[in-house]
Amino acid sequence: MQNFEFYGPTHLVFGKDTIKELSRLIPKDRKILITYGGGSIKSNGVYDQVKQALQGYNVFEFGGIEPNPKFETLAKAIEIVKKEDINFLLAVGGGSVLDGTKFIALASKYTGDDDVYDAIMKHGKLPNSAVELADVITLPATGSEMNCGGVISKISTSEKLAFHSPHVFPKFSIIDPSVTFTLPVRQTINGIVDTFVHTMEFNCTYDVNSPLQDIWAMGILRTLISEAPKVLANPQDYDARANLFWCATCGLNYWISCGVPQDWSTHMIGHELTAFYGIDHGQSLAIVEPRLLRNQKVAKSYKLAKIAREVFGIQESVDLKAADMAIDKIEEFYNSIGMKTKLADYGINPQEAAEKIRERFKERNVAFGEKCAITADVAYDIVKAC
Hints:
It is a single chain. 48% of the residues lie in helices and 11% in strands. It is of the alpha/beta class. The protein folds into two domains: 11-179, Rossmann fold, CATH 3.40.50; 184-384, Dehydroquinate synthase-like - alpha domain (Dehydroquinate synthase-like, alpha domain, Up-down Bundle), CATH 1.20.1090. The strands form two sheets. The chain has a six-stranded parallel sheet with strand order 1-8-5-4-2-3, with helices on both faces. Strands 6-7 form a two-stranded antiparallel ribbon. A hairpin with a 4-residue loop joins strand 6 and strand 7 (159-164). The longest helix is centred in the middle third of the chain and has 23 residues, at 211-233. It is globular. The chain starts with 10 loop residues before the first strand and ends with a helix.
């Protein structure tokens, strides 16, 4: 196992009727900006629960944060934070709302002369503090409720980039699985795929003798496979919803990352597909991952074979054969829950997309994957095969 450090300061409050705990968790002297997305929290009752819990607080609101949150939108919230001297941000919504709120919290403290998006997202000029933040998370997907990262898009340059800062760990996260009963099927499916791929990015690399992390990761994969059909058949199955939500949180709260190599190339390629074509994040991952795993099958054969045997129950002694079967099973799982896995399914030309992504990766001079094997040219081959 490799050396590692772990830091996870977020206070997690999980279960039914937990939104009312806001009044216990936020000091009364805080000046709060509630951030949210397109308004679904007003139709599903979450907004009313939050407002009820925050009676007596000094509260401002900012709505309209998009899926794949846009810098241009977040810049407006940053202005409010500075103008009103906001000292507490409460994200109410899914991972995109929380990612955007993390960026608002950090960017509000930036004092340099550069464009704040370029400074933080491209040049790593991270402020040494952030506005305090917390969340009521309503969508199991990104795991943003228990980590210190976010992904932000910029419309003007068709970019989608990630950032990380220890200053944007949520102070607390409230997870009430019952608020997910009314989620659209598409969002539920996207979240399942996102969680699955997060887990794969941590685990499907190469062996470093980390049996506990392997067991954790494969337990998440098995749980997703068993619980996903239950939720899709009965959206109000609280236990299945709770299990999916806990999988999403554990898929990216860094527990399974301790001491192991990580990949993240599926995400890096997927981000570009979203930036160029606007497809959902989960859709982009389901398209890229099977082709990327096939491209890197030899290097990943040990872990893929282990996944084949321990997640899918495949009895094949030859690792490369088992690896092929695992990749097939992963794509079959995505298809079985209603997720399409080809670029053509979304009207996207694979050759065009491959050329765009190769050009962008060459411009940035980047290589991804646990051994930096995913160069611009390799990414081209992967996307062309999608």
